């Protein structure tokens, strides 16, 4: 497993060297668009309708649209001021105080050289107190909030978070009015059903069935797989061009 970067966790006067690793990997089965008759992968070109020509990578830029239709050209990400790779802890709330809607991406944190003792200390203290660390960080030129928590007795996990302005508040009013009366008998029945279905969360009981089905489908279709066809016309043209170039070179050499 390759680390995304090396940095430090900073709180108070304590600095803990760490390495950051992605905690999740894509569960999607890799597929590509292909041209079915020849089984060749489809290619896409960036095309400018104004200049009426394909656009090379060095001419592609990031533009922010303005209300009047103009674009402001932004500098490439590698030209931006890099972050200092410090995960700065600002306070220690309780985990239940943070709404899960703000969680975005999970990362493992591994202690770096000389950081094992402070890493263990922070892990143990947060676990014993039932608290997590709210932090500010920059990852890949992108500042964000984060939560650092004790995943188990030995390991810290970091959750990158959305900022509050990312939440679409209009969705919070989709439910019916609170004042709407619910009969006590119906409420009691709903609670009874929930109690009967209450179980601990065991993630291994819920595999990605769509992924497993797609893998099974691929395995069943493997006997029908064929190699992509080459383009013999292009190969013939390449050969003709090489032969013609050789003849021209010989003629020039003979003339000289």
From TrEMBL:
Keywords: DNA-binding. GO terms for molecular function: double-stranded DNA binding. SMART domains: Ku78 (SM00559). The keyword Hydrolase does not apply. One of its GO terms (biological process) is double-strand break repair via nonhomologous end joining. It holds the Pfam family Ku. Residues 52-180 form the Ku domain. InterPro entries: DNA_bd_Ku70/Ku80, Prok_Ku, SPOC-like_C_dom_sf. The keyword Isomerase does not apply. This is Ku domain-containing protein.
């Amino acid at each position: 497993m390759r680390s995304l970067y090396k940095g430090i966790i900073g709180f108070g006067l304590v600095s803990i060297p760490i390495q950051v690793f992605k905690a999740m990997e894509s569960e999607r089965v890799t597929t590509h668009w292909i041209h079915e008759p020849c089984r060749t992968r489809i290619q896409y070109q960036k095309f400018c309708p104004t200049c009426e020509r394909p656009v090379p990578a060095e001419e592609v830029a990031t533009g922010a649209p303005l209300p009047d239709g103009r674009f402001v050209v932004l500098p490439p990400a590698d030209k931006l001021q890099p972050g200092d790779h410090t995960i700065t802890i600002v306070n220690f709330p309780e985990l239940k105080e943070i709404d899960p809607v703000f969680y975005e991406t999970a990362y493992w944190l591994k202690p770096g050289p000389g950081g094992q003792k402070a890493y263990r200390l922070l892990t143990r203290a947060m676990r014993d107190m039932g608290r997590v660390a709210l932090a500010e960080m920059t990852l890949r030129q992108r500042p964000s909030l984060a939560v650092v928590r004790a995943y188990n007795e030995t390991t810290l996990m970091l959750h990158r978070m959305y900022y509050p302005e990312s939440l679409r508040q209009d969705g919070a009013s989709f439910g019916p009015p609170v004042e709407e009366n619910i009969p006590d008998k119906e409420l009691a029945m709903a609670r009874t059903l929930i109690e009967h279905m209450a179980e601990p969360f065991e993630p291994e009981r819920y595999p990605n069935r769509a992924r497993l089905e797609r893998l099974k489908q691929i395995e069943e279709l493997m006997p029908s797989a064929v190699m992509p066809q080459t383009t013999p016309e292009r190969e013939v043209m390449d050969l003709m061009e090489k032969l013609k170039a050789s003849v021209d070179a010989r003629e020039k050499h003979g003339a000289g």
